[in-house]
Design goal:
The chain is α/β, with parallel strands linked by helices and 547 residues long. It folds into 2 domains: 295 residues, FAD/NAD(P)-binding domain (3-Layer(bba) Sandwich), CATH 3.50.50; 222 residues, no CATH class. The protein is 31% helix and 16% strand. It contains 16 helices and 20 strands. The strands form 5 sheets. Strands 1, 2, 3, 4, 5, 6, 17 and 18 form an 8-stranded mixed beta sheet that branches. Strands 7-16-8-9-12 form a 5-stranded parallel beta sheet, with helices on one face. A 3-stranded antiparallel beta sheet has the order 13-14-15, with no helix packed on it. Helix 1 packs parallel to helix 14, helix 9 packs antiparallel against helix 10 and helix 14 packs parallel to helix 16.
């Protein structure tokens, strides 16, 4: 034995790969942000993506019936006329597989994959004030150092699995729609339980019912839904779309929700009951989210909203043959469109099938999972497969899971312990050079997402160009500017009926223990765009720019 003890060596920090900018996420946001910073500004950029391919939300959400509720000609990038001309959608509402083909086409066309590290999940991001660098660590131990950190993690990407007692004892298989197996799930001859009737459950139920021996749908909150009337695009419409890209872009940029249709400049209560009924019928026949554009006062007047709500309830009662089932499906406790209104393909018709049962878990709550299935306060339901269509820890969840620490070690989780506080949904006080694409406090989920994403990416790109051209080292919001913006977000929401949906994920109400704060900006995309432009015109008003 040696007379000299072996010295204990301090752990050596892993060497960091140096970059100008690091982007987290390779969905719509990450792809366009990479293109903008790498190819337009010439920066050294890396994207870290947890999945094994591009696609973001659409990479993970492969559940039966997964489909976009924005019309295909609006659910695409508009930054490149060449891209618009060369891509052709097949359906009015694109399904998950077609959206994935589109995003893979974008990645290949602009040679983006060489700057994306797939299968790489961020475990921590810490700001080094002295070096003015973000030090980002992955689960595999890789370390990256970047001047700018941009989160492109999406608003709906952190699955919310309900805490049901006994779930680990369930002998069957269970899945969350946001973490769907890429090989798919075979429901043939199976007794399937579907928990949740938001937009995902409404899309999945009809497809699962086609092959399952029996489908039991567990509904907590009844929902409005309009028919999608999805269909193949005609050659005539495809030609129209390519010939009128500027016009379509103009409509999307002038619409509060970023869609390719305008809200009609008329009031519901100024119309006679007969005229209202005829207009609603026409909108129902056309299908899609455009139904809510029938009148301009549906989200600001409860009396006006009641006319649309009762029309849809009556439709549900006319479609669903069993009066008791129809009563549960139409017992909706919030104003129409106060929650994101789903569109569907034969959802309500599905309850006319002999192999489908609806369980009202508001009347008979789920007690626990058993080895054989689900137990409510009234009875046991034997099941082979459980599907959770229970949504996401929306908007803040993906950011909170990244273990982000800003100046002086301030954790984002602590900064947002009472709810998210950002400036314009773009930056957070105390976190210099951190940009959050479609972050809380921006229109994001109240908007057709590609429109919101392009506006944010363009703003961030222009901002970083301005910083570099003027020798500015860092940018972050003034705390008072963030506080004032949170007040404006609340004012915009309170001017509408949106906060009246007490169980909405807009408020974080679907996640136990999450602060009840209305997160997206409800003032409309055009107004938001104008505010962001004005902030820049006033020398980045509300931000601290330091050399």
């Amino acid at each position: 034995m040696s007379d000299h003890a072996t010295p204990t060596l301090a752990p050596v920090a892993a060497p960091a790969t140096e970059l100008d900018a690091l982007i987290v996420g390779a969905g719509f946001s990450g792809l366009y942000q990479l293109l903008s910073l790498r190819d337009r500004l010439g920066l050294s950029v890396q994207v870290l993506e947890a999945g094994d391919g591009v696609g973001g939300t659409w990479y993970w959400n492969r559940y039966p019936g997964a489909r976009c509720d924005s019309e295909s000609h609006s659910y695409m990038f508009y930054f490149s006329e060449e891209l618009l001309q060369e891509w052709e959608w097949s359906e009015r509402y694109p399904g998950q597989a077609e959206i994935m083909r589109y995003l893979n086409h974008v990645a290949d066309r602009f040679d983006l994959r060489r700057s994306i590290r797939f299968g790489t999940r961020v475990s921590a991001a810490h700001y080094d004030d002295a070096a003015n660098r973000w030090r980002v660590t992955t689960e595999s131990g890789q370390v990256w150092s970047a001047r700018y950190l941009i989160t492109a993690v999406g608003c709906l990407s952190t699955a919310n699995v309900p805490d049901i007692a006994g779930l680990n004892d369930f002998k069957g298989d269970w899945y969350h729609t946001g973490q769907w197996p890429h090989e798919g799930v075979d429901f043939t001859g199976k007794r399937v339980g579907l928990v949740g009737t938001g937009s995902t459950g409404i899309q999945a139920a009809p497809v699962i019912a086609e092959t399952a021996a029996h489908l039991t749908v567990f509904q907590r909150t009844a929902n409005y839904s309009m028919p999608a009337h999805n269909a193949p695009l005609t050659d005539e419409f495809k030609r129209y779309m390519k010939a009128h890209t500027a016009e379509i872009r103009g409509v999307m940029h002038s619409s509060p929700n970023g869609h390719s249709f305008s809200i009609r400049p008329r009031l519901a209560l100024d119309s006679s009951p007969e005229e209202r009924q005829a207009l609603y019928e026409a909108a129902w026949r056309k299908g899609g989210l455009e139904f809510r554009a029938t009148f301009q006062d549906l989200l600001v007047s409860k009396a006006a909203n009641d006319t649309a709500a009762e029309f849809i309830r009556a439709k549900i009662r006319s479609i669903v043959k069993d009066p008791a089932t129809a009563a549960v499906l139409s017992d909706i406790d919030h104003p129409f469109a106060a929650k994101r209104p789903p569109i569907d393909t034969h959802y309500f018709e599905t309850y006319n099938r002999d192999n489908v049962t609806l369980v009202d878990v508001r009347a008979a709550p789920i007690v626990c999972a058993t080895p054989e299935g689900i137990r409510t306060t009234e009875r046991d339901y034997p099941l082979d497969i459980l599907v959770f269509a229970t949504g996401f820890d929306a908007m803040t969840g993906p950011l909170m899971k990244m273990n982000i620490h800003g100046r002086d070690g301030l954790a984002l989780n602590e900064a947002w312990h009472a709810g998210p506080r950002s400036y314009l949904g773009l930056q957070v006080a105390g976190f210099p050079n951190l940009f959050t694409i479609t972050g809380p406090g921006s229109p994001s989920v109240l908007c057709n997402m590609p429109v919101a994403i392009e506006q944010h990416v363009d703003w961030i790109t222009d901002c970083i160009a301005h910083l570099r051209e003027n020798g500015i080292e860092r940018i972050e919001p003034r705390p008072e500017a963030a506080d004032q913006w949170v007040d404006k977000v609340n004012e915009a929401a309170n001017a509408t009926l949106l906060p009246q949906a007490s169980h909405s994920w807009y408020l974080g109400a679907n996640v136990p223990g999450k602060p009840r704060v209305f997160m997206p900006y409800a003032g409309g995309m055009p107004r938001y765009r104008a505010i962001c432009n004005e902030v820049v015109a006033k020398g980045y008003e509300g931000f601290v720019l330091s050399r």
